[in-house]
Design brief:
The protein is built from 17 helices and twelve strands. It is α+β, with helices and mostly antiparallel strands. Among the domains are: 180 residues, no CATH class; 153 residues, no CATH class. The strands form four sheets. Strands 2, 6, 7, 8, 9 and 10 form a six-stranded antiparallel beta sheet that branches. The protein has a two-stranded antiparallel ribbon with strand order 1-3. A two-stranded antiparallel ribbon has the order 4-5. Strand 9 and strand 10 form a beta hairpin. The longest helix has 23 residues. The two termini are 34 Å apart. The structure holds adenosine monophosphate and magnesium ion. Adenosine monophosphate binds next to loops.
Length: 493
């Protein structure tokens, strides 16, 4: 016998208050998840549950699987699919949540507000030709990578649970269906603004801007020009986020404007992966033929996406179109400087540098150029820097970097901090382990083909402390063995 929804909700600690559902009809479609045959909880994020003020024990029983699969709707939830548009590989399309449903916003005991979204929960009015469903491997992939971004200290949506549906999904093959419970500061995207701009709905645009400011940047609500303040805040967060992606070698893979969140969290884990050898041209996504979303392109693409946001905001920036355009352009011009500031700060930390010298950018560039030429593993190389002692900067780096090492050693002595302080800084910024794509793929394969979650859990445990080196599995620390084929990654699955 399952318990009544009220009881389950109270025992688990859910507390819904849905500000987005209160926005006018044009913002969303009211739609419930489509019930599934046989919901089964595959994985629950107990520490995330606790941090949301939820009781993990209550979220593990059979009642929980019916909730996480969308078979039962809790009191206070108001399921909606959000309307949005988006530039996909450069072309504007009307999209919306085609396979995700926002159950509502959970308010934590400390007053924070988080979207609780089911991904893979059945068709919505925005599904177009899609089935509204998701397969197990991609949902486990999002769980693993989003949680490892969090552990790396990078803003990201979170993953609370994955359930299987007991139903097949039909892709190129028949795959087990699954649903991910995603937790986000919000799901407001650049594409949400583009949706109303494309429809010429200036009132809706204004409501959305107000809503976004209230939710993410309440201090800026009273600005002289709130829309400009919003644009600047979002740019600042994206500049910082891009630097953080570069710091750890993350490739998002499908940076369409509908996959860029105004909160500054990494959103929508499709064909994402981490680079092995340092190469700005690295692409994993099977559909990114032109390398539009290659590793080294990401800051440029973020700027392009922000220009789309600025365009959508034009009617709110100023009554006079020409002044609005000047304001937008003025803001957009600052992106490069904002990004460079964050990226240089990240590079200094990666190199163990506390203070700033004008030559630092050049020092870092020289290193990156050398790494590119040598095909050095990005993660191992940076991690090994802290293993060179200041008097004897050699072995882990190999002979090719002798000159650079000498220059770096001279630079290190021009700061008051000791070598061991530098080592600590480096080890806090250069992860020892990352989700190596070939291992992620193997773990997902074991989970799906052999029903064996052990490899997944092993990787997940290691990645929960990515800056700790002791006791980490060798295969996660090392580059893929020579000859390992590059795994292509797929999106929309
Ligand atoms: P994505 O590439 O995952 O960011 O998705 C782009 C758009 O396609 C969004 O509007 C999704 O909701 C939609 N979409 C992706 N997969 C499906 C699916 N299986 N069924 C319906 N809509 C989907
Ligand atoms: Mg998306």
């Amino acid at each position: 016998m399952s318990m009544p929804s009220e009881t389950f909700s109270r025992l688990s600690g859910w507390n819904f208050d849905n500000s987005y559902a209160r926005l006018p009809e044009i913002f969303h479609a009211r739609v419930n998840p489509t019930p599934v045959a046989e919901p089964r909880l595959v994985i629950l994020n107990r520490s995330l549950a606790r941090s949301l003020g939820l009781d993990p024990a209550a979220l593990e029983g059979p009642d929980a699987a019916t909730f996480f699969s969308g078979n039962r709707i809790l009191p206070g939830a108001e399921p909606i699919a959000q309307a949005y548009a988006g530039h996909q590989f450069g072309n504007l399309a009307r999209l919306g949540d085609g396979r995700a449903i926002l159950l509502g916003e959970h308010r934590t005991p400390s007053g924070e507000r988080f979207d609780i979204q089911l991904k893979g929960s059945g068709p919505t009015p925005y599904s177009r030709r899609g089935d509204g469903r998701a397969a197990l491997a991609p949902m486990l992939r999002e769980y693993l990578i989003s949680e490892s971004m969090q552990a790396l200290g990078i803003p990201s949506t979170r993953s609370l649970a994955v359930t299987t549906t007991g139903e097949p999904v039909f892709r190129e093959q028949i795959l087990p269906g699954a649903i991910l419970t995603r937790v986000a500061s919000s799901h407001i995207r650049v594409g949400t603004f583009e949706y109303f701009a494309a429809l010429g709905e200036v009132n809706a645009l204004r409501l959305l801007a107000d809503h976004t400011l209230r939710r993410h940047f309440p201090d800026r609500m009273e600005s002289d020009n709130p829309a400009l303040a919003l644009l600047e805040e979002v740019m600042e967060r994206q500049a910082s986020l891009m630097a953080q992606w570069f710091r750890v070698g993350f490739v998002h893979g499908v940076m369409n404007t509908d996959n860029m969140a105004l909160s500054g969290e990494t959103l929508d884990y499709g064909p994402c992966a981490f680079i092995n050898a340092y190469d700005p041209a690295t692409v994993f996504s099977s559909i990114d033929h032109q390398g539009r979303y290659a590793f080294g392109q990401q800051a440029r693409i973020a700027a392009w996406n922000l220009a789309r946001l600025a365009e959508a905001l034009l009617p709110l920036l100023h009554r006079e179109p020409e002044i609005a355009l000047d304001l937008a352009n003025g803001a957009l011009e600052s992106f490069h400087t904002r990004f460079q500031r964050y990226w240089l700060a990240a590079l200094r930390a990666k190199l163990g540098l506390f203070n700033a010298e004008t030559e630092d950018a050049d020092l870092a560039d020289e290193l990156l150029r050398g790494m590119h030429q040598a095909g050095a593993d990005y993660t191992c190389f940076f991690r090994n820097l802290s293993k060179s002692t200041d008097s004897k900067l050699d072995s882990p780096l190999g002979g090719a970097f002798t000159e650079w090492r000498a220059r770096w050693a001279q630079r290190l002595v021009r700061q008051p901090q000791t070598w061991s302080e530098s080592v600590r800084l480096m080890n806090e910024n250069n992860p020892a382990v990352i989700p190596r794509n070939h291992l992620v793929e193997a773990a997902l394969d074991a989970a799906v083909s052999s029903n064996d979650l052990a490899p997944f859990e092993r990787i997940q445990t290691a990645l929960s402390k990515p800056y700790d080196e002791a006791g980490q599995p060798d295969e996660l620390r090392n580059p893929p063995p020579h000859g390992t084929p590059v795994c292509r990654t797929f999106c929309g699955t």
